[in-house]
Amino acid sequence: MRVPAIIFPADPLNPRRPDPHFAWEARLLRELGGRHHLVDHDALLGGDAREAVRQVPEDSGPLWYRGWMVPSARYAEFAAALAGRSGTLLTSAAGYAAAHELPGWYRVFEGATPDSTWIPWDGSAEGPGPEELAAAVARLGGSGPAVVKDYVKSRKHEWHEACYVPELADLAAVGRVVGRFVELQGEFLAGGVVLRRYERFERADGAPAGGDGGGGGGRAVEARVWWLDGRPVLIGPHPDTPHLAAEPDLADVSALVRALGCRFVTTDLARLADGSGWRVVEVGDGQVSDLPHGIDASGLLASLIAA
Ligand SMILES: Nc1ncnc2c1ncn2[C@@H]1O[C@H](COP(=O)(O)OP(=O)(O)OP(=O)(O)O)[C@@H](O)[C@H]1O
Ligand SMILES: [Mg+2]
């Protein structure tokens, strides 16, 4: 059996080297006896996958990717271009979309993650109209606070402007926050608009995350758990709070990760402020989830090349 290699983005300024953001992972991989190849991320995003994989040798065998997020359609082109060179990404295009986009993983995690609904984006600049928003609000129960994001990302740093909706029953306010979110995401809006019921997560300073208590959103203490073939191979902090360790209870989440059926994924877990347990904030594809700097990733990388 051949040992998988890992593909990293090339440094745009020095295409024979890994992008500086991933250089430490590539170095660690080498120390562990692993091999890496490079992909031209800009060419991949620009729709020229064949050019993007030019540096990956022919017949490269099993491959993982560790790099920047790419839209699911671009990932499919990436996988096809590698297949054209007899290389096999160990996460299929369908598997990538399932873990990377909320509608791909939501049904499996429903009940363990905040209630959510979504409106696919048709590519028009305005985003969803008032009737579509009213229908989405009704699907979420019609009242209470909520969070706005797209299939992949939020604008958590613009919490009050483009992320947090204090009251869903205020349809004008829903329209304002969603409108601003769509405007700020622009051409990068992934898939569609998601509305999620807001839940009070435990925060580093003891107050609930987000809300009006000051500090804005995105400050919940989250643990990022890295799963390979249904087993947790690394449990660390979320990259936003690299110094805050958490020890999540994984009993229920393990079964859900196995049910999703993707080989390499992450789950971000937060504890409810009332102490009643852990919630899945989001699921991600392990290939494009950020690793906090300074974390010991040797077990993770060793598992990937032993997979
Ligand atoms: N339903 C929710 N209830 C309460 N807080 C939430 C909810 N959804 C998101 N948040 C808060 O907003 C932050 C950003 O949300 P989320 O993780 O879904 O978006 P993201 O932009 O994909 O983040 P990441 O940086 O992890 O990729 C979360 O870390 C959490 O603190
Ligand atoms: Mg997140």
Automatic annotation (TrEMBL):
InterPro entries: R2K_3. Pfam families: R2K_3. Residues 140-304 form the ATP-grasp domain. It comes from the Bacteria. This is ATP-grasp domain-containing protein. It comes from Streptomyces rubellomurinus (strain ATCC 31215).
